[in-house]
Amino acid sequence: MKFKAIAFTIISLLLTVTLVIPSAPVHADEITIIVTGDDSDVDIEDTTDTDNQDTEDKNTKSKDSKAKDTKTDTTTASPGDAEVPDPEDIIPDEESSTNIDGDATNNEDSDDSDSDDSEDDNTEEDNDTNSKCSFGDKSKTLYVGWESYYSEIFGVSEDAVITFRSKNEKIATVDSEGVITPVKKGKTRIYADIDENGKTSKCSIKITVAEPFSKITDYTDVMTLDSRYTFKLERTGHAEPVTWTLEGEGLAELEAVSPTDCSIHTLKPGFVTLIAECRGKKASFRIKIYNGTGELFIISPDSEPYKGWYKTYNTYNKKTKGYYLLRSYLERLDTLKGGVLVLKCGKYTVTNTLCIPSDTTIILEDGATIVKTDDTGTKNLTATASLFQTVSYTNSAKDGVFKGYKGEHDIKILGEGTATIDLNNIACQGIAAAHCNRLTVSGISFKNMNTYHFIELAGNANVDITGNYFYGYSESKTTRKEAINLDTPDAETHGFNQRWTSLDKTPNKNITISDNVFYNVECGIGTHKYTEDKPHKNVKVLRNTFIDSATYSIRCMNWESPIIMDNSFIYSQPMESAEITIILNGVKDPVITGNLFENLETPISFYHWKNTGYGKDYAPVYNEISELCMSLLKNNYLVDVTNPYFEYYRVLDDYSEDNLELHPMGQ
Q1: CA–CA dist 89, 67 (Å, integer)
Q2: 617: Cβ contacts below 8 Å, ≥ 6 apart
Q3: Could you tell me the pTM of the whole model?
Q4: CA-CA-CA-CA torsion sign (106, 112, 115, 118)
């Protein structure tokens, strides 16, 4: 979030530093840029005698946890709920500010003073005896060791004789010309005794002497990738040099932009700490760099829809609020041509489809959960059978708008910690992706699938599904519904039926599914309907763990040169329904190696295939496997496997023993 006029207090940190020369020709004697390799939490505390102290992480509650709804430009986030003004409308509250150097303040009327030499202002002498004459200012704050001050006296003639004096010279002195010099923190008055044609009078000015201080007037604690933000430090009552230190080398870079200010440029996602030091005091800023580019919006379950959109709809109620909240921000990102939407911890109940435009990143922070529900609370809105679709709201209403891999692009759905998408055992797709180029799904716990799939991929290119957790299902009628389904948008097979696809039979290509866990799912990854002459190409299934898959773990149907490597297929106990772990139907030259098969019946089975039902008019697909690929099948690991070989059926639709070849495999 972006804050203004937030001053900083004293902190301690043990530093190992490397000096980086500023690229801009600024006053090198006044600003220093330092970058270190580590990003560590920095406590806000006194800097005195810290060399032998251990630091303790106290930053468990970040400043952005106070905001319900946050919006930024391309660099930072700022409070944006209806009840909070935009940052441009916020006037810094000087009274409430603290600062780097103690309790000095610009508040002229402050009564705070710890000086024993301060004077009581309410004495009779302080009452001016001539209301016609006065100093130019009624009061003034000066700073110890800083500039002197002169105020002209008004309401007197040129012939008047003026004698200046200080009520307390331990606080401030004044010379014969009326120049006031601050000496020590405290309060006093400077008097002008006036003799004008034999008539005497006097006037006075209230002087507050404060300690010099520094404060940060602009900073942020959230940024997006490849964005810039200028941290600004304001010096009051001094001109001491400023040092900025960045912890987190490689994640961001610093550049001096003035004698007091620096600009941070983000490079990679993660956390960095920026430290400002001046006059021996320090302040630190823990900055989260989100894995996305463009404008940043941060919301919580209590946030309102963007700009209050949809709140006047007769379908807006407590049961549809979560849907309209997320929809409003996704529509806003559509108009902005992308950006980042962050969901803070909490439960977001969604009834209807959320459409994701190009160049959009959705981040579920730790503890954020999206839950599907069919209960809209109104007869005027019917729940839909998908949670996310890779299409903008603008394009979702157009018939056949996407062909090939020229649909939406550069979409990310990312999770942190326990981030969850719960389909709630409702018959719906979790993520329906078609014609999308460059899709990433990572770090999400998907649970409770029913009838459809957690993720359906139809005609996509360059997809990365990594580090997710898939678990839980309600049994489908076919008992063959995959957590991740590879399909084609094809009217013949009913593979994908959204209106915005052209149904041009585009296959998937360059699909990587890695480092996921599939636990107690009906089926793990696979295809159950093919399109003739449209094989899925370059599908990689790497380093995944499959535990207790009910029917099969992987089914490669009409895949060309897939790689299935370094996965683990484990059953806690033998399952009658899971006779075969990996099924290959009409596959060309698969590489299956380095996998672990444990406590199961048959690891792998090859058999040719022909669609039944939808797509039945397509010609059969046949397995083609080279000698090299056959030999690589031996490089797998078998533990407590009933049939330690892979099956190969030579003829279509003949599953007799006479048609079966058994090839030993495993180590």
Answers
A1: 17
A2: 492
A3: 0.81
A4: positive
Give the span between the Cα atoms of 351 and 329, in whole angstroms.
Answer: 16
**What residues are paired with 192 via a beta bridge?**
164, 203
Judge whether 2-104+215-290 and 129-210 match in fold.
Answer: yes
Nearest to 125 by CA among 62, 50, 203, 72: 203
Q: pLDDT tens digits for 531-573?
A: 999 999 999 999 999 999 999 999 999 999 999 999 999 999 7
Which token pair is 298? 């941060």
CA atoms of 398 and 57, how far apart (whole Å): 52
Rounded to whole angstroms, the Cα distance separating 486 from 587 reads: 14
Label residue 613 exposed, middle or buried (CB < 10 Å: 0-12, 13-18, 19+).
exposed
Could you tell me whether strands 360-364 and 517-519 are parallel, antiparallel, or unpaired per DSSP bridges?
unpaired
Q: How far apart are CA 583 and CA 129, in angstroms?
A: 103
Burial of 593 (0-12, 13-18, 19+ CB in 10 A): middle
Q: What is the DSSP string of 455-520?
A: EEEES-EEEEEES-EEEEEE--SSS--EEEEEE---TTTT----TTB----PPPEEEEEES-EEES
The domain spans of the chain are: 2-104+215-290, 129-210, 462-664
What is the tens place of the pLDDT at every residue in 393-443? 999 999 999 999 999 999 999 999 999 999 999 999 999 999 999 999 999
Task: Report CA dihedral (5, 11, 15, 18) to the nearest 10 degrees.
Answer: 10
Instruction: Read off the amino acid at residue 95.
Output: E
Q: How far is it, in rounded angstroms, from Cα 577 to Cα 602?
A: 12
Fold topology of 2-104+215-290: Immunoglobulin-like (2.60.40)
Dihedral sign (CA 381, 387, 392, 395)? negative
- Domain formed by 129-210, architecture: Sandwich (2.60)
Structure tokens at 364: 């579920």
Decide: 533 and 485 in contact? Cβ < 8 Å. no
